[in-house]
Every structure is written in structure tokens, then in C-alpha cells.
Amino acid sequence: MELPTRPLMRATYDSFDVMATLGTGTFGRVRLVKHKENNTYYALKILKKCEIVRLQQLHHIKCEVDILSKIDHPFIVNFLGSFQDDKRLYLILEYVPGGELFSYLRRQGKLSDDASRYYASQLVLAIGYLHSLHIIYRDLKPENLLITQDGSIKITDFGFAKRVEDKTWTLCGTPEYLAPEIIQSKGHGKSVDWWAIGVLIYEMLAGYPPFYDENPFGIYQKILTGKVEYPKYIDSKAKDLIKKLLTHDRTKRLGCLRNGAEDVKKHKYFSSVIWDNVIAKRDTPPYLPPITGPGDHANFDQYPESTEDTAVPLTGDDKAAFDAFNLF
């Protein structure tokens, strides 16, 4: 089934006043911008074309934009449009002013059972929605979850997301959150997102991930061994849910059975959750970020300004490959 594309806004770099950096990555950075005509704030993801070509990520970026342009969910960041110039691609995204769940979690140390359940229930609905469209997300972690002004969360950064009918073999993701089938290159599908939700719930409740080591190979070894130590203060229902999500055998992992996300929703950890209230955002959030106004970016880390411009225009076949994108 081909997904419909939502109508997107048209803009150029000159349409915006460019403000603070909200985050940095391999290909560039995300900036807070204000549209000069409608005075609305957005997050502008700025990607260097030369880096995309050098790292052979053109197909990944194409998938990211294609997926973002077709999804619409309360707990996923809205994609509003895209454009390009000779050096860069630009993705216009909804600005979520509350900062990363990662920052909140680090400040708190760990979250209460109720707070963890609040965020986990929203995630279960968002991941279930993506899976219903045959999209696997593949990069679930606290850094990719933004807190909205009303205290709910939104998934951002779809750089690893992919539409998959069955399996894919690409190694990608963050070491602490990788499912064993990714590390073993067995081919993977929706199962990896349910594993990552298990890791995330553990990290919210404990304050640290279940598999940790100083280097990635140590982490991979621990994931493959599968031994998890549970702090005594983790509730028995939460522990049972995490164990069922961190099941090595994908055919037995919760979320991967016949009823998919519905099985996760029916777990006793969520017995107090009214799912219609979750999607309608009727539940009281555990935390409301302090926000003084629409362009407030105090909830994000401060980044040094980019002092040198390393982006260069493309030529020849590389240029033609970008020009052929009718999405931009």
C-alpha cells in the first residue's frame, strides 16, 4: 500500500531568521528558526550534501523525507516541508520546546513508575502506529524523544527509519539499544523497536541502560549474553514487561506475537492505563517544561556556533542525484 503524502509548506533559507543551534550531527545541525512572514518557530534540519555523498547516505535521507512526509501522529514530530540549495538540504520540522527526555532523565537521575509508564504508553502507541504502516524506527533512545509544551513526548530523527515488509539487514542504531538480531546480522524487522522500548523503560526506571560497557564491543557482548541485573526498587510488573521485551527469541518477544502492539498494551504494567486517554492526551504529565514563550530554547543544551563552513557545492552525477529528488 502506497502511503499518501501530506501537503507541505514551501520555503527557502531566506524565508527564516536563523537562531540557536538545537543539536548537531554527522551531516550538519538543527537550528531554531522563525518564519519571517507567519512569525512561527520551526526546527530546521540543515544537512551538508557533500557529507551525505561522502558517507553514501543519499538513500537514507531520501527514505527519511519520504517517511516523514507521510506520517501523522500526536507523539511524532511533524514534518512540514523541505528545500535545497547548491550545498545543503533543509528539512522543516515542528519545533518542540521542552528539550530531550535524555536531559530531563539525567537531571532527575531516574523516573518514578508513574512517569515511566506515562512516557512508555505514548511510545507504545507511536511505535504501534509506525509498525501498522510497515515502518521500523530503529533509533529509539532518550535523546530522540522531545518533550512538548504540554508535557507529552514526540519521537524525532527518522534517519534510520525504513519501510520494511519483512526484514532488513542494515547495521544501525545506538549500541546500548541494539537488539541481538541486529548485532548478529540475522536480518531484522519490527522486533528491534520492541526490544528498544524494553531498554528505554529500564533506563527510565533505573537511570542507566541495562547493557553498559566502556566500549561498544563490550556492550554487544552483554546484549548477546542477555544477563540483566534489576535494581530492587523496580516494580515486579515493570520487571516482567522489560523481561518480555528483552527476550532474545524474536518469535517469543512481546510486541512480535500475533497481536503486535495490542499484546504490549494488555500487559499488567499498563493495567491502569486508559488508552483512549493516552492518545487524547488527557492524562496528567509528570513534568511540564519551563517555557517563557514560543521561541524559548533554554531547555536545549547550548552548542558553539559553527565557525567554518565545510559544505561545498556538488558537481556532475552527485549534483544530478540531488536534482532528481522531486521531494525537495
Automatic annotation (TrEMBL):
Record-annotated AGC-kinase C-terminal domain positions: 271-328
Domain Protein kinase span(s) in chain numbering: 16-270
Domain of life per record: Eukaryota
Swiss-Prot/TrEMBL keywords: ATP-binding, Kinase, Nucleotide-binding, Serine/threonine-protein kinase, Transferase
Gene Ontology molecular function: any one: ATP binding
GO biological process assignments: anatomical structure morphogenesis
GO cellular component: cAMP-dependent protein kinase complex; cytosol
One Pfam family here: Pkinase
Entries under InterPro entries matching the protein: AGC-kinase_C, Kinase-like_dom_sf, Prot_kinase_dom, Protein_kinase_ATP_BS, Ser/Thr_kinase_AS
Residues at which ATP binds: 45
Leader sequence residues: none
UniProt family annotation: Belongs to the protein kinase superfamily.
Protein name, per record: cAMP-dependent protein kinase catalytic subunit
